[in-house]
Amino acid sequence: MQLSLVPHPSTPPADPTFKLWATVDHAASFGAMATTNIWFGIGAPAARFVIPELSEPSRSDGLWQTTCFEAFLKADGAEAYREWNFAPSGAWAAYDFTDYREGMENAEIQAPPYLRMEDNFTWWTVGATISVDADKAWDLGLSAVIEERDGTKSYWAIAHPPSDKPDFHHRDCFAARLP
After folding, report:
1. Per-residue pLDDT for 96 more than 90?
2. Range list of β-strands (E), 17-65
3. Phi, psi at 63, each rounded to 5°
4. What average pLDDT is seen over the chain?
5. What is the rounded CA–CA span in Å between residue 80 and residue 126?
6. How far apart are CA 114 and CA 162, in angstroms?
7. Which residues of 113-145 are buried (b: 16+ CB within 10 A; e: fewer)?
8. Chain-centroid distance, C-alpha 84
9. Strands 68-75, 138-147: pairing kind
10. Over 70: is that where the pLDDT of 28 sits?
11. At residue 11, does pLDDT exceed 90?
12. Residues 64 and 164 sit within 8 Å (Cβ to Cβ)
């Protein structure tokens, strides 16, 4: 499935003409786990953005403070959810919440996400492959913090709640569905 992300009205990008999209492929199931590939695409040259230096993939906190991509997964009917953060540098994070912004703790995961970045000079992508429970239907929220070199930060999601500031944890942001 392909989804368009839109900036929150209170945090527009410096140049409103570029686009941000995500492609999600909920793929093969291996026993109780399924592979989900998420590609975030940005329709502008990577040189325009603050992109942390490439490093060895590792778990790290505070990724949302600069260019970062996020996936939120909530099992059908549940209050608890997981937040994944993916940085173009290869850093990542995973947090479990018991309810809306409550009970946050580092998620215990079986395998770290597989991350990659491709720069096509006129547009660029960040891909993340994660494992999810194959026996559940998932509500999905996709979002991004995009920092431009001029200091502008814009906050993008497939849907935003009606509020004065972005809130990727809000239920309105879980606007897509994995089968």
Report:
1. yes
2. 20-30, 33-42, 58-59
3. -60, -30
4. 93
5. 26
6. 33
7. bebebeeeeebbbbbbbbbbebeeebbbbbbbb
8. 6
9. antiparallel
10. no
11. yes
12. no
Could you give the C-alpha distances from 57 to 53, 105, 110, 112, 115, in angstroms and in order?
11, 20, 15, 9, 8
The token pair at 162 is 């009606």
Q: Can you give the pLDDT at residue 179?
A: 73
Q: What is the 3-state secondary structure (H, E, C) of 79-114?
A: CCEEEEEECCCCEEEEEEECECCECCEECCCCCCCE
Residue 143 · residue 5 · CB < 8 Å: yes
Enter the pTM of the model.
0.94
pLDDT at 80 over 80: yes
For residue 97, give both structure tokens.
């919440």
Q: What is the pLDDT of residues 117-159, one digit of tens each?
A: 999 889 999 999 999 888 888 999 999 999 999 999 999 999 9
Domains of the chain (ranges; CATH) run 2-178 (2.60.40)
